[in-house]
Amino acid sequence: MELAESFYAKPQMGPLYVDRLDYSDHHQFQDKDIKMIKARLENLKNKFGSEPTVVVTEKDYDRDSKILGGLDPFEALVLCCKLQILNHNGSSQDSFKKLLTLSLSCKIHC
After folding, report:
1. How many CB atoms lie within 10 A of CB 56?
2. Which of 32, 31, 27 is nearest to 59 (CA)?
3. Is the pLDDT of residue 100 over 70?
4. N or C: which end of the chain has fewer CB within 10 A?
5. pLDDT, mean of residues 86-106
6. Contact 85, 32 (CB under 8 A)
7. How far apart are CA 25 and CA 60, in angstroms?
8. Contacts of 10 (CB under 8 A, 6+ apart)
9. Adjacent-strand bridge partners of 2
10. Of all helices (H) and strands (E), which one includes residue 57?
11. What is the pTM of this model?
12. How far apart are CA 52 and CA 42, in angstroms?
């Protein structure tokens, strides 16, 4: 299961509480999902007395960018990631690129 949403009440020194919702990979968010998420955000706001922030993965945002608008007036952030290839046991970023190029070339021409 992929982490699709994480919620936390955002004080000055870090989160007081983290609430988590998991959805299956490629989940298509429905209106009922947004309503349920907003209800949980309201509960967090009332329980902790601060505005919660929603964090969604970049993958979920790319699949359905309208989800963030549906969470208004709550703040929503998109968690982005970057792939970094590290050198290990004689392998390097260059050797990875060569292997990838060879593999893709074989799939196209083989």
Report:
1. 24
2. 27
3. yes
4. C
5. 87
6. no
7. 9
8. 50, 51, 52, 53, 75
9. 23
10. strand 52-57
11. 0.62
12. 8
